[in-house]
Amino acid sequence: VSIDAMGCQTEIAETILQQGGDYLLAVKGNQPKLFEAVRQALAPLAATPLCAETMTLEKAHGRIDGREYHVMAAGELAAQFPHWK
């Protein structure tokens, strides 16, 4: 499940997990500790050359947007956030 900030609510996350799902959340700067932890954890991946598997280019509305994607399990950050279930 790809979901916006509403998915951070404990009840919604638990429902997704109870039904056997996984979820994907975007991390933004309004959660500075989490943002920095994720940034550091992804730094080795971000240092690798761009490729078609990790980047998309989109031309729309008179501009070109490039997005880079990397995925990691939340467990890799669990030690820094022990209150996570």
TrEMBL record:
InterPro entries: ISAs1_transpos, Transposase_11-like. It comes from the Bacteria. PANTHER family: H REPEAT-ASSOCIATED PREDICTED TRANSPOSASE, PROTEIN YBFL-RELATED. NCBIfam families: transpos_ISAs1. This is ISAs1 family transposase.
